[in-house]
Amino acid sequence: ITATDDGVHSDGNINVEGGEITVSSGDDGFHAESNINIKNGKVNITRSYEGLEAMKINVSGGTTSVKASDDGVNASDGSGGGMGGFGGGGGGMQANSNCQFNVSGGFIYVNAQGDGLDSNGNISISGGTVLCEGPTNGGNSSVDHNGSIAITGGTLLSIGSSGMAGEILSSTNGTTQC
User: For all residues of the chain together, what is the average pLDDT?
Assistant: First the structure.
């Protein structure tokens, strides 16, 4: 899919359960108003403003690769206006419990110039492998969350600038390097 706007857009959910999807977009690679669920298959977003954007992003399998000029993964419900809303320049200060990025399996690679992984709420990693590269500027972070981050399994490798470095308070049964 080559698009000047969103590559794949839904006013509800996007479900990927197999197959292979390659997207080059001028805006979001995948944009859903509710959930993005990747259970299997291969998602390859070669160009985007934001790679995956939805209120809840759940990855339980498959291979996902994202290249973004802003946020690679953005769990946002659009209620935050310019800061923290869809397409915003980073999350606001208050956590939004509706917004979640959950990884329970699969392989995810993100290369982002904005926040690599961004949730206006919580991030949960219980399985799978997440490799996050970027950003290089100090106004963004490789892992950015307004709520909590729980790593109970899987692997997270996060490489980027330290200007807005987040903190992971605890990790059990997983491998974490930030």
Answer: 87
Model confidence over 42-61: pLDDT tens digits? 999 999 999 999 999 999 99
Within a 13 Å sphere around the CA of 93, how many CA atoms are in the beta-carbon half?
A: 0
Q: Is the dihedral of CA 55, 30, 163, 130 positive or negative?
A: positive
Residues 124, 150 contacting (CB under 8 angstroms): yes
**Contacts of residue 27, Cβ cutoff 8 Å, sequence gap at least 6:** 3, 4, 5, 6, 48, 49, 50, 87
151 vs 156: CA distance, rounded Å: 8
φ/ψ of 37, rounded to 5, equals: -120, 115
CA distances to 27, 145, 173 from 74, in Å: 13, 10, 25
pTM attached to this predicted model: 0.86
* Torsion angle of the four alpha carbons 158, 163, 168, 173, in this order, in degrees rounded to the nearest 10: 20
